[in-house]
Amino acid sequence: MKSLLVRSGLALLCATILAACGGGNGSGSMLLSGVILPVTPGSSVSSLTKNGLVLVNGTESISPLAGDTAFQFPNLIAVNDSFDIEIKTQPTGAFCTLVNNKNTANIYTVQQTQVSCTTNTWTLGGTVTGLKSNGLLLSNGSDVAAPTPSSSAPGAPVSFTFPVKVADGAKFGVYVLAQPASGNCTISTANNVGTMPAGDALGLTVNCI
Does 121-208 carry CATH code 2.40.160? Predict the structure, then answer.
């Protein structure tokens, strides 16, 4: 008798689980979710570094936050219903793309959508005035720019940019790493340290005497 009761209880439990998941006859509903890929494979750092992303599926929308590694729509979707997850609004200062975002709902497809985001990058640079010889080096962290004097008019203003673009919202700090062969150069402290705006920052000023 005890064995019969145990088997009956297990059967009831299995039936309940199958009904909740739409098992057996293909009916039921489930939550629609996905993952936000890391910056690099194997990394635990989310590629979503900015707020403002809005994902939609029909009339339903969600807004994953910077640093999130997964997302989930709050309402259930019926098995065999179609879904189409789209990006309604890109995050501020970044661009995201989707894969596996359109399908017919089943226990496998509702978890396969992937979001991948890239933070916008911008050019950092400025102008050097009075430079008459080579050798000047400017640094922004490990990134180095080497402005050269004008070949036609030594000392005339020349522009420079750093080889590596700076991420939107990232900190920068530009300093004189090495002086030119002749003369002495200083960088204006008005804007040599700051946060990268949503666009190129080309207003750095270096004066050489």
Answer: no
Q: Residues 175, 139: contact at Cβ < 8 Å?
A: yes
Residue 160 phi/psi, 5-degree rounding, is: -145, 155
Report the length, in residues, of the chain.
Answer: 209
Confidence band, pLDDT 50/70/90 cuts, at residue 42: confident
Model pLDDT, residue 17: 37
Tell me the backbone φ, ψ of residue 91, rounded to 5 degrees.
Answer: -65, 155
Its pTM stands at 0.77
**Contact by Cβ (8 Å): 175, 136:** no
**Cβ neighbours of residue 194 under 8 Å, at least 6 residues apart?**
171, 172, 201
